[in-house]
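Researcher: Sequence recovery benchmark, item below. Answer with residues only.
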């Protein structure tokens, strides 16, 4: 909403600059979007002139040479192209050196051989109107040379406010002035509708109004005027409308717009002589009913829309735009002025379906109160009488009444102090609420104890606050009143306090597991990142996912912010790779990052249609990590570290699962976006819960990355499977028996398979197995690998004997030979 500061200061004028005023209002909740200047910025070279003579230009048919008295010793010669310039006129003149709005500095110039010492101005050139075809003739007795800004409103600062939907009272300049008064203490002028020249309730000008849908039109008011002279509006009115972004049309229409600007309540003027049957009916439209609106377009309506009809049919779309058939024209002499209240949700829906928005619909859809119609009608009546020569016909039509009585809310100082964390003096509370238009009185006692006095200590000093009509829908509870006190007294002045704790909250087991996993990776030196939950459709192709792959069962967004964010991400790897590319491109080549977040996929029978988005949706919380470059810093002792590889990522995934007390293993897997020989799936028991491996070189190249390794696990399953409370298991009082075992197996046998076989055949006393050496070379032969394992046996109740351990060792060797073709080395 554009608010001319010149107009705002007519009602409340604090000693603040425009910037300071905008900042003060922003701090109280009326946020400014921008501040700019409209019109003439420096009026020093603009004066009143008197045209003494006009003669044709000797070398141009459309130019005239004017002799103009500008208050100096000698008249000035000004060349003018306006067709309406004439001797005897009082005009607005820009002298050489003046800066016109939207133009540069004016200089004396020779036009077709005649030197022009200034410029006679139109309303458009002064930015106080839109008329540009002719000069502005002043109706002022001012002497030539009088500064023009004493006669015309030349320029003003303008503040554009963002009005939130709950503050429909601030859709008018007077509502903003009320906020200025409350937040600065500057006096507030009486409302512009204080004087009403209209008559009492009754038929107006023989016009009858029938409202058939009171559920959509709570109040309909109208008043008739005659003797109107249609013409241009005075400059003070067009200047304010132009600064507020409205286009002046004629005095009657401009008055309706000016009243809307000040009060927030839209009005509509009908040519009374063109209202067929002198009767208006407010009803729902029929399906497909046509209406030709003021913009010349014919629009088809539906039964959810409301129309205003006369005996010949619809004349306007209620609350949105008037009709061409009864608009005010230059020949209009009688006007029926309508001020109505419409249900905001209906206006918003109708406006959206028609694709038609107007200043009126933008206000009605935020919800206006019935009392505003009477205020706007009173103000418009005074302006029509004063500016258009109108005479008010007896009677005021009022269908729907004045509105419900004001609500009274109790405000308790104890409650205010608890919510704000600090007391506010009772006198200050009353002052704030009264300045905002609330009625404030001491609340009656709610009860008396047996010995006299108040029965409830929290009711001491309570106020009974009556809510004004313009805040009816926004302030309905005690907490709303407290908010009003806080924002005007200054939220920034409230001390920092903690709210009282009534009950201690606890994390769920899943939340504790997630935080534990994040802490483990952060403790290993990884940085947590946060990526978008959205993904681009080409992510699936860049990950080399074939048709029918489970990750292609994506969740498609119906109304995406952009094509690049039209899917919900099916994996965390996409956002991790995006973040890695962003950092590597900026020189951060050694990265260790992780992300914890939700991934989204469709699930269901694979035999279902393969179309994207088919099947029910599924989402789970995942944990992903990515390493590229060196996983850690080097030192003078160790030299530069090797680049991150499969085992570095596996170690980190294992650290998370070990920290959550889960037994895990890895097995070969074929993920299309991972290196086929340097990747694996992560298992907990028989359940696949994640993956780990080196990113396929083609996929890494698609993100402009070198060797990169990743890991990902399903945190929801991990949190469900991990013990809620870790239990302590004693190491035991008896010594362990430790032995090493070297076994030769084929190159195609995974080390994990060897470890699993050792655990299977090692008996109940085998407590640990660890591979600590790998050898390939001539001593074991081509296609063979030697693995050296460290075995640890321990019994809780006794010391193990060498014979027992030898028996288990023999069983391990036999199991390796039978199951994996392994043989002891040496």
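Model:
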């Amino acid at each position: 909403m554009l608010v001319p500061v010149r107009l705002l200061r007519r009602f409340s004028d604090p000693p603040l600059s425009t910037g300071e005023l905008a900042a003060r209002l922003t701090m109280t909740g009326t946020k400014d979007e921008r501040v700019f200047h409209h019109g003439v910025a420096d009026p020093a070279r603009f004066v009143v002139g008197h045209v003494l003579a006009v003669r044709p230009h000797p070398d141009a048919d459309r130019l005239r040479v004017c002799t103009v008295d500008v208050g100096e010793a000698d008249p000035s010669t000004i060349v003018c192209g306006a067709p309406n310039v004439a001797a005897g006129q009082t005009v607005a003149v820009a002298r050489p050196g003046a800066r016109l709005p939207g133009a540069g500095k004016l200089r004396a110039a020779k036009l077709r051989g005649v030197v022009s010492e200034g410029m006679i101005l139109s309303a458009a050139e002064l930015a106080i109107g839109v008329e540009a075809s002719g000069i502005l003739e002043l109706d002022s007795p001012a002497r030539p040379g009088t500064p023009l800004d004493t006669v015309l409103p030349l320029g003003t600062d303008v503040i554009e406010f963002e009005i939130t939907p709950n503050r429909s009272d601030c859709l008018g300049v007077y509502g903003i002035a009320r906020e200025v008064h409350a937040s600065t203490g500057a006096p507030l002028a009486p409302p512009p509708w204080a004087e009403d020249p209209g008559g009492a309730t009754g038929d107006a000008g023989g016009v009858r109004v029938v409202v058939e849908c009171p559920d959509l039109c709570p109040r309909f008011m109208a008043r008739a005027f005659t003797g109107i002279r249609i013409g241009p509006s005075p400059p003070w009115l067009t200047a304010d409308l132009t600064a507020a972004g409205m286009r002046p049309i004629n005095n009657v229409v401009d008055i309706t717009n000016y009243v809307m600007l000040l009060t927030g309540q839209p009005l509509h003027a009908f040519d009374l002589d063109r209202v067929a049957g002198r009767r208006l009916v407010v009803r729902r439209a029929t399906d497909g009913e046509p209406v030709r609106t003021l913009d010349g377009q014919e629009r088809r309506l539906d039964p959810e829309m409301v129309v205003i009809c006369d005996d010949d049919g619809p004349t306007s779309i209620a609350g949105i735009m008037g009709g061409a058939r009864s608009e005010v024209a230059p020949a209009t002499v009688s006007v029926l002025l309508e001020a109505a209240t419409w249900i905001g949700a209906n206006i918003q829906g109708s406006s959206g379906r028609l694709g038609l928005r107007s200043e009126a619909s933008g206000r009605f859809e935020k919800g206006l109160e019935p009392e505003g119609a009477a205020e706007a009608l009173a103000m418009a009546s005074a302006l029509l009488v004063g500016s258009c020569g109108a005479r008010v016909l007896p009677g005021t039509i009022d269908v729907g009444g004045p509105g419900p009585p004001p609500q009274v809310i109790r405000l308790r100082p104890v409650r205010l102090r608890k919510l704000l964390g600090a007391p506010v003096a009772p006198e200050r509370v009353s002052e704030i609420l009264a300045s905002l238009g609330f009625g404030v009185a001491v609340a009656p006692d709610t009860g008396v104890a047996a010995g006299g006095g108040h029965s409830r200590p929290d009711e001491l000093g309570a106020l009974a606050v009556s809510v004004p009509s313009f805040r009816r829908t926004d302030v309905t509870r005690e907490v709303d009143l407290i908010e009003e006190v806080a924002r005007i007294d200054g939220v920034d002045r409230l001390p920092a306090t903690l709210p009282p704790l009534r009950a201690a909250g606890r994390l769920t087991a899943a939340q504790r597991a997630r935080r534990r996993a994040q802490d483990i990776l952060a403790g290993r030196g990884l940085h947590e990142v946060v990526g978008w939950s959205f993904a681009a459709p080409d992510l699936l192709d860049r990950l080399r996912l074939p048709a029918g792959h489970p990750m292609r069962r994506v969740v498609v967004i119906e109304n995406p912010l952009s094509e690049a964010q039209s899917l919900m991400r099916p994996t965390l790897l996409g956002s991790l790779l995006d973040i890695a590319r962003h950092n590597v491109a900026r020189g951060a080549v050694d990265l260790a990052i992780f992300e914890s977040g939700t991934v989204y996929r469709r699930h269901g029978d694979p035999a279902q249609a393969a179309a994207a988005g088919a099947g029910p949706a599924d989402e789970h919380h995942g944990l992903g990590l990515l390493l590229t470059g060196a996983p850690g810093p080097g030192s003078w002792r160790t030299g530069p570290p090797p680049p991150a590889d499969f085992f570095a990522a596996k170690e980190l995934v294992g650290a998370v699962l070990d920290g959550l007390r889960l037994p895990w293993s890895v097995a070969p897997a074929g993920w299309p976006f991972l290196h086929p020989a340097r990747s694996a799936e992560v298992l907990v028991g028989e359940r696949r819960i994640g993956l780990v491996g080196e990113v396929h070189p083609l996929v890494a190249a698609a993100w402009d990355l070198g060797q990169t390794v990743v890991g990902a696990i399903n945190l929801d399953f991990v949190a469900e499977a991990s013990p809620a409370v870790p239990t302590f298991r004693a190491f035991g009082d008896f010594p362990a028996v430790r032995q090493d075992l070297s076994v030769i197996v084929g190159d195609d046998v995974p080390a994990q398979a060897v470890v699993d076989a050792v655990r299977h055949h090692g008996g109940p006393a085998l407590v640990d197995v660890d591979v600590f050496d790998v050898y390939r070379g001539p001593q074991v032969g081509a296609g063979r690998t030697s693995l050296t394992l460290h075995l640890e046996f321990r019994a809780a109740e006794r010391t193990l004997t060498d014979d027992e351990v030898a028996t288990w060792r023999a069983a391990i060797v036999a199991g390796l030979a039978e199951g994996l073709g392994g043989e002891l080395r040496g």
